[in-house]
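[Discussion] Sanity-checking designs against the backbone

I'm trying to build intuition for which residues belong where. Below is a structure token string of 110 positions. I'd appreciate it if someone posts a full sequence so I can compare it with mine line by line.
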């Protein structure tokens, strides 16, 4: 004898989380503090996708040299801060405050 199939779940509405949205959250947090701990940015997060996209946005900002991140020990807090004017000038980038939109295509991975 077979167990009957459970009822179909209610329709799920897809939620979109973009790198640009999460980068804006990180940038906003850094406008009010010299550094931010990743875990603090994720305090209210209950969704793994939101956590992953936030981390990817942080890595994208590091790649663009907008942020510098530090971690003193494995599994320790990940701290991020805006790069200094000297760090940006050495990389040939415009001063801090010039926020160019993130490229969310996969072209950068080619």
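Best answer:
Here's mine. Compare freely.
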């Amino acid at each position: 004898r077979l167990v009957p199939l459970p009822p179909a779940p209610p329709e799920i509405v897809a939620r979109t989380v973009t790198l640009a949205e999460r980068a804006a959250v990180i940038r906003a947090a850094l406008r009010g503090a010299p550094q931010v701990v990743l875990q603090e940015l994720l305090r209210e997060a209950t969704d793994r996708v939101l956590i992953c996209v936030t981390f990817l946005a942080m890595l994208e900002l590091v790649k663009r040299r907008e942020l510098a991140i530090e971690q003193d020990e494995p599994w320790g807090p990940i701290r991020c801060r805006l790069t200094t004017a000297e760090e940006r000038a050495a990389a040939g980038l415009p001063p801090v405050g010039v926020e160019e939109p993130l490229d969310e295509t996969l072209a950068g991975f080619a």
